Amino acid sequence: MKRVRTMAALTTSVVALMAAAACGGHESTSGSDGTTFQLAAVADFTGPASGLGKTYTNMIKMSVDDINKAGGFTVNGKKVTFKLTTVDHQSNPSVAVTEVRKLMDNPGIKLLLGDTTTVAQALQPVLTPRKIPMVWLGSDPSVIQAGGGNYFGVLPGPNDRASLLGQYLSQNGITKAAIIAEDSGYGNAYAKEFNTTLPTFGIDVTGTEKFPADGTDFTTPLTSLRKGDPQAIIMLTFPKAGGLIAKQARELRFTGDIVSDGTAASGSDFVSSGGSAVDGVITLDYGTDPLYQDKTTQEVTSRFQEEYGFAPASVGLYYYEYPQLIAKALSDAGTLTDEAKIREAISKASVDGIAGHIQFVTQAGGRVPANQALPVLSIVTWKGDGSRVKGSTWTRDPQSGDWSEAK
Predict the structure, then answer these.
(1) What range defines the domain where residue 401 resides?
(2) Does residue 84 contact residue 37 with C-beta atoms inside 8 Å?
(3) With CB atoms counted within 10 Å of each terminal CB, which end of the chain scores lower, N or C?
(4) pLDDT digits (tens, 9 = 90+) for 385-398
(5) pLDDT at residue 31, rounded to an integer
(6) Around Cβ 352, how many Cβ atoms within 10 Å?
């Protein structure tokens, strides 16, 4: 079976501005033959999602280095290489807006790679009037639609995740579930979708509790949720908080399933904060190879770990593909400056790499909105030693919205 993967979120912390460096209205060059296209990555290096932010930014850096070492790519007969700079937005939307506005003072900015729902929403008033396209880590359809055709969602959306988890939990005898979500654009959108979708699978939502995005003590919301006697608690937050929630839930003697939509239970931060309590946590994961069993995937992730000292979260694989996809789109567009042509080229571009085959849905149909990548998800269970066991992989038809297990 041909691998098809969602270009990877959820949900976390890189904004990469791509700018054609301009001088007097002309594109800057590298030497006498080549043109440089700038990528400025605004990521969370020090905030609550710093674990994922470092994965994403470093994956982009590694991909850029690989492209440049191979001689770059060709646009309208000219060789082009990437240049990357980084800024820390600390998972703070106001900081993100401030830093993006500074970067946009460069008149050559033509494209942005976005991160979380909260940051994407905050950046819309800055980007939409300028009609600057954004390839965005998140997937909330309302954010995509508000982007006026300029936003491209790359992770499976709230309905994708809620419907697959609802189907999976129902098939495994779960009839009552509780939700604990961070109070943010991401957490609120997903909590709303899960509350709407789970009952359609015969699952009663016994309670929903919110907490500050920088929270570390979850005893009160978890104690409240336990009163509803749920068989499962679903976490909608980032990895550091996800590990703490799992740990504190077990300390409160919750013996049911602990479940993640794919963001809370991912990466080294989840394991370091949760310790042995991560054992048995069920999570959605991205694509068909979240355990890095493919030879090419192993080569990239091994190089990453050797270079940066930690294993990348599986969602980071998609960030390796971002520069590859943009290079392909720019080559197809034949321009580094025409936003409309670049936007059209992104919608039509596809790449086959370590994240499999990446493409966008460009016409609305079924439950997958236009400008969102085709959703592919796997079910993964964590073990107490920090390893994971892959279960089934599922694909969703963009027209009918039905999930089917990949064979």
Answers:
(1) 158-285+376-405
(2) no
(3) C
(4) 888 898 888 888 77
(5) 33
(6) 15
